[in-house]
Amino acid sequence: MGELYVVSTPIGNLKDITFRAIDTLKEVDLIFSEDTRITKKLLNHLGIKRRIQSLNEHNEIKKTPKILQQLSQGKSVALVSDAGTPLISDPGYCLVKQAREKFFNVIPIPGCCAAIAALSVSGIATDKFYFHGFLPSSELAQLKELDILAQRKETLIFYESVHRLQSTIGHMIKIFDGDRKAVVCKEITKLHENYFGENLTEIDEFIKNNPKKIRGEFTIVIDGSKQKQAIIDRKKMDKILLELLPEMPIKKAVKICVMVSGLSRNETYKRAVILKSLQT
Questions:
Q1: How far is the C-alpha of 280 from the C-alpha of 19, rounded, in Å?
Q2: pTM of this prediction?
Q3: pLDDT tens digits in sequence order for the chain, 280 residues long
Q4: What CATH superfamily is the domain 115-222?
Q5: Domain residues of the chain, as ranges?
Q6: Residue 51: closest CA among 60, 59, 43, 61
Q7: How far is 270 from 280, CA to CA, in rounded Å?
Q8: φ and ψ at 139, to 5 degrees?
Q9: What is the residue-wise DSSP string for 221-241?
Q10: H or E element in which residue 84 lies
Q11: CB count in 10 Å sphere of residue 198
């Protein structure tokens, strides 16, 4: 039976390719990539003359059975993405899942990953972390997703595009508060590599004051929540506020919630504003 190699490639600096990745790309029978044009540039740089076939989010389901057939015939297959490690916010899950279900050997060829590279230089806790990737595109869906993550204790890692960076940071400030420790990692390993921000407010100000520098690809690393559940019982607070907010103004709802629950007025008001925005 053939083997499927999940091959990590550079995320910017072509010198970051591993010897093992080069050997694998030279030796396999077939190479499937997210974007054949980008992979072709990499192979040309490495002096590897090979035909590349596409496997992306639009054709993965259709192409997976054909690749599995090639594996059953004893062919060796390499899977690569545009940059970094395949399947991490990139296509390949369907193929790998089905390959393993059919007991083919699936072998990682480790290398670059923007999320891990960003975390390693962020100065934020690395012992426990949660990788989220890209948030939803719509404002309401993004706010709801961030609200779910707000109380997580682990370091949070997100990917974001240049066009949405400013609005996403704004939403993070709204949900997490501006003083939450955070850093934005821009164009990791590339020519215009840069790291900015000590917290979300500082990042927001940098973006507003330096629009010409906000280009490329971004990884956002954010400190986990430091709040103790004993101090603020969010479930209790939400239950009361969700009953009151549709029936009365925010100030009145907050006042009643504080009287009934004994929770902090400050935190209750902040929470009420967030819940109100999620309802509209």
A1: 53
A2: 0.83
A3: 899 999 999 999 999 999 999 999 999 999 999 999 999 999 999 999 999 999 999 999 999 999 999 999 999 999 999 999 999 999 999 999 999 999 999 999 999 999 999 999 999 999 999 999 999 999 999 998 998 899 899 999 999 999 999 999 999 999 999 999 999 999 999 999 999 999 999 999 999 999 999 999 999 999 999 876 544 577 788 889 999 999 899 999 999 988 888 778 888 898 899 888 887 6
A4: Tetrapyrrole methylase, C-terminal domain (3.30.950.10)
A5: 3-112, 115-222, 234-279
A6: 43
A7: 16
A8: -60, -45
A9: EEPPP---TTT--HHHHHHHH
A10: none
A11: 12
The residue to which tokens 């400050």 are assigned: 266
CB-hemisphere CA count at 13 Å for 119?
A: 21
User: 């109100």: which residue's tokens?
Assistant: 276
What is the residue type of 220?
I
What gap in Å lies between CA 232 and CA 223, rounded to an integer? 19
From CA 35, how far away is CA 117, in angstroms rounded? 23
Q: Give me the CATH topology for the region 3-112.
A: Cobalt-precorrin-4 Transmethylase; domain 1 (3.40.1010)
CA dihedral 102→104→106→107, nearest 10 degrees, is 170
Cα torsion 245, 248, 249, 255 to 10°: value is -80
